[in-house]
Amino acid sequence: MTTRGGALSDRVYRLFADLVRRRTGYVLTEAHRPRLETRLSADARAAGSFYQLFGLLRNEPTSSPAFGRLLDAAVNSETYFFRDPPALRAFAEEIAPERLLAAGTDGSLEVWSAGCATGEEAYTLAMLLLEKGALPGRRARVLGTDLSPANIRRARAALYGPHSLRATSPERVRAHFEPADGGLARVRSAVRSAVAFDQRGILDDAAGGAAFDVIVCRNVLIYLDEEARSRAVSVFCSRLKPGGYMLLGASDALAAAAAPLTLVRLANDVAYRR
Ligand SMILES: C[S@@+](CC[C@H](N)C(=O)[O-])C[C@H]1O[C@@H](n2cnc3c(N)ncnc32)[C@H](O)[C@@H]1O
Q1: How far apart are CA 197 and CA 120, in angstroms?
Q2: Cβ–ligand 1 contact at 225 (below 6 Å)
Q3: Is the CB–ligand 1 distance for residue 244 below 6 Å?
Q4: For residue 106, with 0-12 CB atoms within 10 Å meaning exposed, 13-18 middle and 19 or more buried, which class applies?
Q5: CB pairs under 8 A, 24+ apart, for 261-266?
Q6: Confidence band (pLDDT; 50, 70, 90) for 207?
Q7: 78 lines ligand 1 (CB under 6 A)
Q8: All domains of the chain, ordered by start, with CATH?
Q9: How confident is the model over 159-187, as pLDDT tens digits?
Q10: Which end of the chain has less Cβ packing within 10 Å, N or C?
């Protein structure tokens, strides 16, 4: 048995990777290993060793704080505001207006950002809805969900630095953010109040729960194994309102090939429609 980067051996790393994959579908590769080792070193010391930590986590529910720290260490959370302009234009200029019309005067537009990381995607969708005049009167809501408890805590705090804002125009920074301590920017309350966050895995989202007009899941399915990808797409299909849209990233799209949805070519992007 070889060890690399300290006390996390190949064999024990594979045990952690199998555990995460079985519980969430997320595939840990060799690239995740140094981060896992660094971030879990305090827990491993407290447990006695990485192997003993694995023994503890194996018996913990996925929703426990200790298992949450494993997920925080495992996931890739790269994201930023106004990522992928064509998809956002499709959402703001084509999909949202159509779905708001379908909702009628009494209905509301329900949007789910699945795998929202630290919240930038969910807030971006709400900012676009605000720019379109859809938010006043609570006519639209965005739900962001993510596997990682730390990501969801950061999303709820709504505080961001330059890395998250690197693709946001100065006009939008002024419109949607207020200055905060430490040179950070805080999402304004008009946007925050339209967005809620929940820590959970896509596969924990049972079929038949709340229905959505739009499900946005970008740069997430690529991290899952094949079975989890197709289960995730089934969950999405079951959670779309009739006529609702699913927007996947280019790298995630193959997973939807077998979904009972129609591929729609919009002016700005492609989407799947129920
Ligand atoms: C690379 S980020 C993408 C964030 C955002 N969607 C974007 O495109 O900017 C991937 C996120 O997906 C989340 N994720 C991965 N597998 C998940 C699962 N099974 N359920 C929920 N979230 C998941 C990770 O925790 C991570 O925060």
Answers
A1: 12
A2: no
A3: no
A4: exposed
A5: 261/237, 266/90, 266/94, 266/95
A6: low
A7: yes
A8: 10-74 (1.10.155), 85-273 (3.40.50.150)
A9: 999 999 999 999 999 999 999 999 999 99
A10: N
